[in-house]
Amino acid sequence: MRLAGLWILLVAVYAATLGIPAQPGMDYAGAEPHHLLAAESIVSDRDVDLTDEYAERAYASWYPHELKTDGQVVAGRLMEPHGVGFALLIAPAYAIGGPRAVQGEMLALLAFAFVLAALLARRLVPEPYATVGVGLVALSPPALAASTTVTPGVPAAVLLSGAALCALAVRERPRLRYVFGGALLLAGLPWLGWTFVAPGVVVAWALVVWTLRERRRMAALVAGEALAASLVFYATINDRFYGGLTPRSAGLTGPPEFPVGYVERLPRLAGLWLDRDAGLLRWAPLLALVFYAAWLLYRSRRDQLARVAPARREAEACAGLLLSLAGAQLAVSALLSTGGLRGESFPGVSAVAALPALAALTAWGLRHVPRPVAGALGLFTLGASTWLVLALRGDHLKGWLEVHTSAPWGPPVNIFPNFTGAAYWPATLCALLVAGVAFLWWSERRAAGEWRKAAAASRTSKAMH
């Protein structure tokens, strides 16, 4: 009942944001019109050639301006670099009710993804921390904005969360339905977008390795072969229709120059969290507990708590998997995205596939921080969400992409660095963070060395006496 209530609450809150446009006079922006146009092509023509859709302005009823393609003509067909999987997923809803029905599908799927996140959180903490922690992240500004955004990251969040649950279930009971269910969910990830392959590989590795540890070699082999076959089929279809291994081959913009282009984007890893306008912590301070959860995992493994409490081993496995999953997705979003750091969507929407994993980790951190700290972080996050929704519904703000405010921080928001402006403060902050992490690592290594020496001396003393 608790999970059903969470889903109903999230659907109701997300539905309240349906009428909020992306920009003044435009309900959809960025890649959204291109996804919807691909669904229109599938519904009307049963193909993904967008030549006639652009010629006939099939988007005119829901996009008031001229829409320019971001793709190329491949083998006589106009193809765009967004793939066919997501378009096939939203095509039934588009056929029933147009773009609004697609948004309804998105909000229902995102609410379900956070329900799965609550199940993941239960492997880390008891109730009510699991549901409360996940619910707070699910009501944060990035989640609210993503709930009605037409983006493949929303169904990818469902697949990643479900596959992670299957992988963790294999550790407890290595049943075939968990192995094959996880493999089936992971096999669908590339079709939603090539950017979801990296976190999918993380979960796939855990699924196969944990299956092998439980001596289900044949099941692990079949799951691995199914995943490999899905990737081969995916690459074959893309090569035929898009002229390359991924749909990005049909795009007008290519990947960054290797290796210089990727090195230049490294500051985005910090900017994704700390940027004054686009940072996750700027809009959802509660997500700072993710870093505390990482610290809890490190301390737990360092102190070998799993030897004392065997149940701790499962919590460590869950936290490690979620941290790896979220880290892979955020790294891809920062380093491989075609747009800038702030992109063409509300901050955090580009990383929505990782939000359920971050929510489960937040619940773990929420359980262990002092209550005043947890209350302050939750209040800041919910306050920002409430202010945004009321301002957008009351026309004080004109759209998700027109949000220029210091809420919920006020003047202290200027503490956050501007990663698109002068490089001095962002570079200084990144250097301080690196120095702090290095000092922490050195201190912990020194303490671990002293502990080992003391343990060795104790064993020697016992042997002599």
Automatic annotation (TrEMBL):
Stated name of the protein: Uncharacterized protein
Transmembrane segments: 106-122, 128-146, 191-212, 219-237, 280-298, 318-336, 348-366, 373-392, 422-442
Biological source species: Solirubrobacter ginsenosidimutans
UniProt KW keywords: Membrane, Transmembrane, Transmembrane helix
